[in-house]
Amino acid sequence: MDGVGIGKGDEGDAVARAHAPTLAYLRTLPSFTRLRAHGTAVGMPSDTDMGNSEVGHNVLGSGRVVDQGSKLVAHAIASGAMFRGRVWRELIDNVLSTHEPLHFIGLLSDGNVHSHIEYLLAMLHRAAEQGVKRIRIHVLLDGRDVPARSALAYIDRLEGVLHELRGKGCDAVIASGGGRMVVTMDRYGADWDMVARGWAIHVHGEGRRFPNARAAVETLYEETGRDDQNLPGFVVADGSGPTAEPVGPIRDGASVICFNFRGDRAIELTRAFETPASAFLEFERGRVPNVLYAGLMQYDGDLELPTRFLVDPPAISHTMGELLVASGRHQLAISETQKYGHVTYFWNGNRSGKFSEALERYIDIPSDRRPFHERPWMKAAEITDRLLDELATSNVDFVRVNYANGDMVGHTGDLRATIVAVEVVDLCIARIIEAVTRQRGALVVTADHGNADHMLDVGPGGTKVPRTSHSLNPVPFSVFDPRLPMRSPTLAGVDNPGLGNVAATCLELLGLMPPAQYLPSLLAPAP
Questions:
Q1: In terms of DSSP H, where are the helices of 148-265?
Q2: Tens digits of per-residue pLDDT, 365-406?
């Protein structure tokens, strides 16, 4: 249940406010407990860091905690290893030779889910110290992993550093931007038009022009009423009027760094930069600049995207999916497009493709393109229909299914719609319980992180402000097993259980011995 955590039960807790009799029933089972799904329990730097779907599924699928992107990048920057690396040196040497700008594209916030502004600032300072004379930044506005209208605070902080660099002789400015759910940061091929819009403003400088990023955001706030993540794209121009020229189109000879460390919403932009014309069919790119492009990390190791990257991603081997294939078990992974990569790529330890064509089936139910708060049911019913058909007709030993509703609708900040989203998921789980009972299987229910459970924050003067980011709350865990008298196993006394304990639990339910490197199962030993 993506994004369905355990909140305080207050007015902003869409999970508690939803009519969810199935979730209430699961909480009565002897197997019910709360799992840690954020911070150090999922490999993030500290317990003030939210969990997210990427790291959550990494941990669920691998059965242990692995240092994640943010932690790896922080160490590489603090130790200086990133700046001593071959790729950084190539990027810097290239622009020192061509005199084209060093461009940065990425999510401007400290949400620490896809990116962190501190990493960008560290790279800006180091580039200027190494003699780079021209820097352009293309900012994607967050409002999703951070407060909904916080973009100006991050822009002002960035502008302060850019002002400092200009004082030292480096021509460093913001060149373009836009909301992350409108430009550039699509994922899983759900809406390539987002990437096309980002390509037009970042690469070609084509878009509505403003004298600076603050003016763009303030104007778009007033005109559209939208929050950061949904603001239209904009281009910063040198001067005003129709003849003003964009300050930072990307041209031949430039170096380009995508400063997101998380892969899912960076892969499509990377493909647009790196795919040859004959193989790129997603949109008409027009002029494709001949640049050196690099990611902060490699976003897909199997596809080798991008070919250049600054920090090695976490290497996760011996995932549950791999072990089940080795034991000859048939697996099914199913979700809608918005979370398809999470039950496949991330679950398998950041690995594309299957371990076995014969033993695995992956099903992607295409997501709607309408705003999620207008369709809070999303594709939950279609997922459930297909899942139950597969259970009735296919030979399958283990299924992993993701309902995206609690997360994707929760990110809109629409409390009413999120309550509906939780109720939809509750109904779908009830249908699965019926199928599991008929077929004498077992059902494990949990979440990858919280979101729908914390939909309101307290603003100035005690006002209630919609929250669009993940929560720090624990997530529920229950095992429904009709093969047992109580329809639920009892739990072992595992201290501070987290998502990392789920894989060993599933392996035990399948009659398999978890590997030594896995965190322990939550099941109590059989009497």
A1: 151-167, 192-202, 213-224
A2: 999 989 999 999 999 999 999 999 999 998 999 999 999 999
The identity of residue 366, as a single letter, is: P
- Domain 14-66+315-509, CATH class in plain words: alpha beta
Measured in whole angstroms, the distance separating CA 242 from the mean position of its chain's CA atoms is 38
Q: Hey, which residues does 293 pair with through a beta bridge?
A: 256
- Closest of 192, 273, 20 to residue 4, by C-alpha: 20
Considering only CA atoms, which of 167, 165, 122, 158 is closest in space to residue 138? 158
CATH fold for domain 70-311:
3.40.1450
Cβ atoms 336, 404 nearer than 8 A: yes
Contacts of 499 (CB under 8 A, 6+ apart): 35, 36, 37, 41, 42, 51, 56, 59, 60, 446, 448, 475
Angle at 268 (CA atoms; ends 235, 252), nearest 5 degrees: 55
Q: Would you state the structure tokens that stand for residue 409, as one six-digit string?
A: 């609708």
- CA 307 to centroid of chain Cα atoms: 21
The SS3 call for residue 229 is helix
- Of the candidates 53, 70, 488, 521, the residue annotated as catalytic is 53
The tens digit of pLDDT for each residue in 134-162 reads 999 999 999 998 999 999 999 999 999 99
H-state helical runs in 31-143 = 53-62, 69-79, 81-84, 86-98, 117-129
Q: Could you give phi then psi for residue 326, rounded to 5 degrees?
A: -60, -30
213, 42, 175, 161: which is closest to 113 by C-alpha?
A: 42
Do 207 and 182 contact (CB within 8 A), yes or no?
Answer: no
282-300 as b/e, with b when 16 or more CB fall inside 10 Å?
Answer: beebeebbebbbbbbbbbb
For the chain, domain boundaries: 14-66+315-509, 70-311
Among residues of the chain, what percentage have pLDDT more than 90?
Answer: 81
Q: Based on the number of CB atoms within 10 Å of its own CB, is 446 exposed (0-12), middle (13-18) or buried (19 or more)?
A: buried
357's CB contacts (< 8 A; 6+ apart) are none
| Number of helices and strands in the chain (H, E) | 17, 17
Q: Are residues 112 and 49 in contact, defined by beta-carbon separation less than 8 angstroms?
A: yes
Strands 102-108 and 134-141: parallel
Give me the helices (H) in 336-465, please: 337-341, 380-393, 405-408, 415-439
To the query of whether residue 97 is one of the catalytic residues in this protein, the response is: no
Note whether 467 and 456 are within 8 A (CB): yes
pLDDT per position as a tens digit, 294-318:
999 988 765 778 999 999 877 789 9
Q: Which amino acid is at 485?
A: P
pTM, two decimal places: 0.75
* CA of residue 339 relative to chain centroid, distance: 9
User: Are 448 and 342 a contacting pair, CB within 8 Å?
Assistant: yes
266-284: average pLDDT: 94
Distance of CA 172 to the CA centre of its chain: 29
| Calpha distance 176→201 (Å, rounded) | 6
Q: Cα–Cα distance between 489 and 305 in angstroms, integer? A: 43
